[in-house]
Write a structure and sequence with these properties.
Elements (H helix, E strand, L loop, with lengths): L2 H27 L1 E2 L3 E6 L2 E6 L2 E8 L2 H12 L26 E2 L1 E5 L7 E6 L18 E5 L2 E8 L5 H18 L3 E9 L12 E7 L4
């Protein structure tokens, strides 16, 4: 094997290992919303979630929505006067909120091209203790305890794949006689630099309580 070819292979292998290592690290460091797994039906999980608090915004596209919410969890909230951002996010004064998985997004009702995105806040925050956003286009939302049906998949989550998984989710619920409540949403658990084969995505919809 030629030295140049060998160097390229060794360097590529090191980069790939570093990429995978970052995926493992970032996934393990992210706090996830707790839930109880009740049962599994054709790969669809039925879960019980506790009350949760989200920071939500509606924007023309996902990049803008993400930036607004990331600014909020990075310290753009009441009581924070100055912000020093590093990797990971850090603030000099005020309150900075750790990023929690998953990030939820769905098509907004008001505009077919708009996106409503929400960041779940860590479990220690309640509606009373969650910092108030300073941006008028970010709001706090409290969701009551609920049952949720979830179809999990990996790799990237383009619209066609999300639609296909949503159809599978709806078909499974219909076959099992379980009524969905509201519209489905997309949950994404990883940062943009996580390798696609390590990503965790979920299509989720609230379902009626069992009788």
């Amino acid at each position: 094997m030629r030295p140049l070819t060998k160097a390229i292979l060794v360097g590529g292998g090191a980069l790939f290992a570093g990429w995978v290592g970052w995926g493992i690290y970032s996934t393990s460091e992210a706090e996830s919303v707790p839930y109880e797994r009740l049962r599994t039906l054709n790969g669809v999980e039925i879960r019980r979630y506790p009350r949760t608090v989200l920071a939500e915004t509606t924007a023309p596209e996902q990049r803008t929505a993400f930036r607004r919410l990331f600014a909020y969890i990075s310290g753009d909230n009441r009581g924070n006067e100055s912000i020093s951002m590093t990797a990971p996010v850090q603030t000099r004064t005020g309150e900075s909120i750790s990023m929690t998985a998953p990030v939820r997004s769905e098509t907004a009702d008001t505009d077919s091209d708009a996106v409503r995105m929400g960041f779940y806040l860590p479990a220690e925050y309640s509606p009373e203790t969650a910092p108030e956003p300073t941006a008028s286009d970010v709001s706090l939302v409290t969701e009551p305890p609920k049952r949720v049906a979830v179809d999990r998949f990996s790799w990237y989550a383009p619209a066609w794949r999300v639609e296909r998984r949503t159809q599978k989710l709806r078909a499974t619920l219909e076959r099992e006689g379980i009524d969905p409540v509201g519209d489905p949403s997309l949950l994404r658990y990883n940062d943009p630099w996580t390798p696609p084969f390590m990503r965790r995505n979920e299509v989720a919809v609230a379902v009626a309580e069992a009788e």
